[in-house]
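User: I'm putting together notes for a lab meeting next week and I want to include a structural view of one of the chains we've been expressing. I don't have a solved structure, so I'd like a prediction I can at least talk through. The sequence is below, exactly as it appears in our construct file.
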Amino acid sequence: MARKGYSTLQAGDAAADDKMASKKLPPFPVRQMFVLALCRICEPIAFMSIFPYIYYMIEDFHITEDETKISVYAGMVTSAFTLAEFSTGVMWGRLSDRIGRKPVLLTGLAGTALSVLVFGFAPNLTVALIARALGGFLNGNIGVLQTTVAELVTVKEHQPRAYTIMPLVWCLGSIIGPMIGGALARPCISYPNLFARGTIWDKYPYLLPNLFSAATVFCGVVIGLLFLEETHSEKKNRRDRGVELGKLFTSWMRPRNRQLASEEEEKEALLDDDELPGYRTTENSPRLNTTSGAEPRESLDLNFSSFDGVKTVPEPKPKVFTKPVILNIISYGILAFHTMTFDQLFPVFLSTKPPADKDFHLPFKFVDGFGMETKEIGVILSVQGIYSIFSNLFLFPLVTRRLGPLRLFRLLAVSYFLLYFTTPYVVLLPENLRIVGIYILVVWKCTFSTMAYPSNAILLTNAVPNLTTLGTINGVAASTASLCRAVGPTISGLLYALGLRSGYSGLAWWTSGLITVVGAFLSLQITEGGGRFDEPTNDIETAVDATERDGLLKTDDENARP
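Assistant: Thanks for the context. Below is the predicted structure for the 562-residue chain, given as structure tokens.
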């Protein structure tokens, strides 16, 4: 009898949990995430489009006759953006806490458009570096985007889905960007029948892909201006003329009957949302309803709660940079260091021409290259993006449900060094197997990065004590990652050039492998929890919901007793 009562109690608890979850779980913010994705996609297109042709762009600048030094200058061009982004990342994060997320995001997009236009007209390395640095100074969108996603997603159940969207968008951009960069760079060479010598396309052979990138970014600015809504808790209720114009534009596009239905839904939503917490109905709350029918006395002072006659004083404001936050930020920086190193070094690795004299002393001393053209490299990088979409959509949600973000991140961090140790040896494969080895590396790298970044983002967001400091913390994280992305390509470029001269072409790759060992050690120190989702809230609506849940569980408990 006791066992039967216990089983009934368990069933009652499960039913109450399901009822409360289905009733209180907010809908996933599909529309705003879609708008945010459209704004985001133009940045990876602009950023990734340079990789297929950067080797040849540096070569056309005639800076050096030594081909082994080209990787150094290519690393400088890549690092200029991220180093400048590092210097302003915290500023943009703090500014987004003050003026809102939307203005900062749109400013970053406009800065990217200006940067790629200058880069396309760059006649020498100095102008190219200035153009890239300009984009970094004006763009603080990495941290602000993470903050916006965190403010749109208010429950943990939505996090695995939400935190794969921005990496997925990056993957889409990384497909389009390299394809555009590889196909449109040096059009007078690639398409001599369409682009004649002596024209502007001959004088500026890398202008065409950058014009495409600028046009894409401009479209992102327009979409953001018209349809992106503010998410900052203190700024989202202010008037937004851009969104008003966007709603007016969409009202012209939709049929009249759908427009009326939509207006009715909006009115109902406004009536529901604008109702003050003190006047919300409590008729379904077993604990708040009394037999006398008297309404419960509620205080609108959010610093105190007075349910059941008990007043509690809130705890002091929690520390912002707690140990979990700091560990996650450092881990994010290390992850950015070695993944950016791979992204910058891999196209250079594929572009490197085979030496006339091949002096191999295995297992470590060897130098060789693939000597691929921009079109081939663009196709490989696009395949990388296509597979990344698959990994984001299917692999990451499946694995993170089984392992959780913490265990998954630790597993990846511990095994990352194998990727960097193996990469340089692909060049030693027979000619007919080289392309197979390259695509194995692409799949391996994409699988790891598409799982590591969302896992780290979830861990960092969950560790943040409260939303009021989320912009600043994500700004610090973005600055840290930008610094590492700036240092990584520069160091790897120097080491790659040194390795080619000394006969150890794997030197840069193996150094990145050692960096991942440090990241693996730090990942074992990270703990999950202790962030804003675990803190008690003092607002009345949440307290009412908690009380309703307690009442439901208590009722089911009494009904389940034998």
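A couple of points you could mention at the meeting. Confidence is low (pLDDT under 50) at residues 1-11, 13-22, 266-313, 535-562. The two ends are 7 Å apart (CA to CA).

User: Perfect, that's what I needed.
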